[in-house]
Amino acid sequence: MSWFIVKRFASLVPILLGISIITFILLHLIPGDPAVAYLRLSNIPPTDEAVAALRLELGLNKPLYIQYFEWLGNVIQLDLGMSFVSKNTVWNEMLLHLIPTIQLTLAAFFFIVVISLPIGMLSALYKGKWIDQFSRIIAFVSVSMPTFWFGFLLIYFLSVKLDLLPVLGRGTLAHLVLPSLTLAFGYIGTNIRLLRASMLENINEPFVVYARARGLSQWKIISRHVLKKSILPIVTGLGMSFGNMLGGAVIVETIFAWPGMGQLFVSSILNQDYPMIQGCVLFMSVIFVVCNLLVDLTYSLLDPRIRLEGEE
Length: 312
Prior knowledge:
The protein has 312 residues and is mainly α. Helix content is 79%, strand content 0%. It has 14 helices and no strands.
């Protein structure tokens, strides 16, 4: 198991290096001069002399590959630079906005699990029944409806018409319900269909027939055997969903004025805050890669054959 984990961690190095190169190049392809953007955000007239002095101070007059290696050296030391807007370090700004995003992601993840897994199980167990038809409708609406539109519907009915929940901001648990439901809704349908298809594939396998012949109850067969084998695709779906949500729910956080990473990323783009944009993109990429790694490790725990094959 330890060798399997070491190999997975070693595979992350070239991936993260490639992400850093792409991030750095894309940022420098953005129209505009970082020195001019910095001066304007600092309320300093961007004269030619001021721009030239700042480019020299920031090292923007050096060749691009030298700028990259200097930036990479700082990133390895966990130094992502200083925000043009707040004049605070990028790390501090991201940490301030990361906690609300974690809260929003965990709440949305909770809704995904408690809604999609029971409905997916019932849909597979009662194939062709009304619960199966109902789950298909939910899955179709979930994957078809845009996130922003579902959020506006929740605001209109639950906040404007019924006055049950607050709309904007962050404070109490009530403020968390609408944005987390909106964020979770787009992933619920996918996980319902994944679990239904996986259970239908395994429910007629020979091991289920043998278990019934041994006299095991239907509940024990489903919970101990069928569900355990069918859960692997769901682990992938949940892991990818968690990475996407934690990486930055830009639309949801913008609609509900939730002070998370998504809102920080949008405001950084509007303000041309280059160090913050670079830090947010790199951080979101690392989060996504780490979530994929955790999915692989979870796979190896649920199915030892994957671990043994990787060790060979």
